[in-house]
Amino acid sequence: DGEVYKYYADGEWRASGSGKSVAIVNPTTRQTQYRVQACTQEEVNKVMEGAKVAQKAWARTPLWKRAELLHKAAAILKEHKAPIAECLVKEIAKPAKDAVTEVVRSGDLVSYTAEEGVRILGEGKLLVSDSFPGNERNKYCLSSKVPLGIVLAIPPFNYPVNLAVSKIGPALIAGNALVLKPPTQCLLCNQGAVAALHMVHCFHLAGFPKGLISCVTGKGSEIGDFLTMHPGVNCISFTGGDTGIAISKKAGMVPLQMELGGKDACIVLEDADLDLVAANIVKGGFSYSGQRCTAVKVVLIMETVADTVVEKVNAKLAKLKVGPPEDNCDITPVVTESSANFIEGLVMDAKEKGATFCQEYRREGNLIWPLLLDHVRPDMRIAWEEPFGPVLPVIRINSVEEGIHHCNASNFGLQGCVFTRDINKAIMISDAMESGTVQINSAPARGPDHFPFQGLKDSGIGSQGITNSINMMTKVKSTVINLP
Ligand code: G3H
Questions:
Q1: 4-13: buried (b, 16+ CB within 10 Å) or exposed (e) per residue?
Q2: Can 259 be counted among the known catalytic residues?
Q3: Active-site residue, from 259, 329, 385, 386
Q4: Could you confirm whether 293 is annotated as catalytic?
Q5: Are strands 453-454 and 463-464 parallel, antiparallel or unpaired?
Q6: What local confidence, expressed as pLDDT, does residue 369 receive?
Q7: What integer pLDDT is reported at residue 53 of this predicted model?
Q8: Ligand 1 mean position, distance from CA 11 (Å)
Q9: Whose CA is nearest to atom 6 of ligand 1?
């Protein structure tokens, strides 16, 4: 209990001068599992200074060498999958198997980023002047992509490793320095920080130059705004909740990449394959206990097929294993007690307003049993708010338009899905849905990780996916040759 994990700066592991630490509470045992350093603003300043120096040299390091180091880090990451996964199990109660998958997926992501980087950053453009009216062919413009400087990466608690490397990889291949601030689920907890520190250690072992990557942990109140408003930061890539909206208001004139919440709708038409629908509702709504921004968060289903689908979903929910992540249960404790309380608040509001509970509501500590709420109406909070838990509302609709209307009335617009055998209808519905991505006949998902991934409205700004992130973390630099 006495050990406090060190933070990473200037290529070494350090204890904070603050002498203080932040506890990470295990969601299952609700006991302190780990402790991390509570870094000070002064330490953040030092990290920024070091990153600035390191970045200058890194930008001049040949692209193939940058790629080589990333490939090395990816391999080390995969070698370390067991201990990193163990941290994910203990810090965020991710089912053991999924925790390993997260680390392996992260290694693959880093390798792909290295490959994609050498291709897209290895190309520039040549423009000639005489295509624009009034010009002779006497100006040649050479343009290429150059790094932004220092990228600040803030991943969320639910993918502390994968959504960190999805920022780190693109930043580094593009020639930037990277400062990582692990998730701050609430002001005083750093769920996922130890997994993130371990992941950073893999980059350390790969041999990146000192100062290029750093990882600072601590209290949001002390270093949160200080980091996001720091004049040394040239780009912010954030994934998380509505803190992102606050960050975007306070940040300086720097490119922002934000992936915030979602209320992903699942629209089910009468002609859909109902077994496929039920399987995807369970997978989409309840994987990692619904704690994914791309989880199915509202089912909008045609009344005529609703009874059948609800019955099929209930049969599948009855088979889910509920319990600790170590046992590979499907439903595990949600990340914090306050998160469980919030979910319970939404459930109780729906109960008071007359929703049908398909299962009995059951909770022990942070563990909430899977619950399908049928006959949800728009006056219930759960029709609009994001529970980030294993509870899913079903709204019965009488027309497709009604479904699209509900989907578009949301403040969110991350992903959505539509189930039908009629591809023409599916495309038309996809066009009408105000969401960054619409999946036809499958539950929403971010991956494969090179696909574009973006939210509309309060779900975010910018587009992610490996290629988009590399491009976003660069700017165009031109040199014009003027002939006499
Ligand atoms: O939680 C937000 C993630 O970006 C969702 O990723 O679709 O791979 O679970 P996922």
A1: bbbbbbbbee
A2: yes
A3: 259
A4: yes
A5: antiparallel
A6: 99
A7: 98
A8: 30
A9: 446
For residues 305-320, average pLDDT: 98
Does residue 149 contact residue 235 with C-beta atoms inside 8 Å?
yes
Closest CA to 172 of 212, 210, 205: 212
pLDDT band at 14 (very low <50, low <70, confident <90, very high): very high
pLDDT tens column, 145-168: 999 999 999 999 999 999 999 999
Residue to mutate (ligand 1; options 101, 154, 163; most atoms within 8 A of CB):
163
Compute, in angstroms, the gap from residue 292 CA to the centroid of ligand 1: 5
CA atoms within 13 A on the CB side of 16: 26
What is the distance in A from the centroid of ligand 1 to the CA of 415? 10
Tokens read off for 201 = 């250690």
HSE at residue 349, side-chain half, CA atoms within 13 A, is 19
- Reading the block at residue 298, the tokens are 């509202």
Residue bearing tokens 């990780």: 449
pLDDT tens across 56-71, in order? 999 999 999 999 999 9
Enter the tokens of residue 92.
């965020």
Closest ligand 1 atom to Cα of 453:
4
Residue of 293, 329, 358, 417 with catalytic role? 293
